Give the backbone structure.
Amino acid sequence: MSTDPNNDPILGSTDDVDPDLATTSPIEPVDDTPAPPQPAAQQRAELADTVDALHDRLDVRRRAIDEASVRTDQVKQQAVEHKNTLLGVAGGVGAVAVLVIVARRRRSDRQGRER
């Protein structure tokens, strides 16, 4: 076995080691002591917050009602913004309905006369 301090039997020669990369600092000890327990009141408060958050996520009925309310408000706002357009569409639908009724009456009158 060689007694040369620059020739490590496992790592090989240490002549090629960059001195800037070599560290001589000791390994810092790991602190394995457990953190002190939180007060019971704080644990209860955190647990209550977690349960409330889970309840909110799983309450599908309330979420659907909230979403419906939001959509209803959006439609109402759009109706106010486009009032004239809606009145025009409603008038057009009414006019088509009147024309259909008149056409059916004329057709039934003609069929009644022919018999």
Observations:
- The radius of gyration is 42 Å.
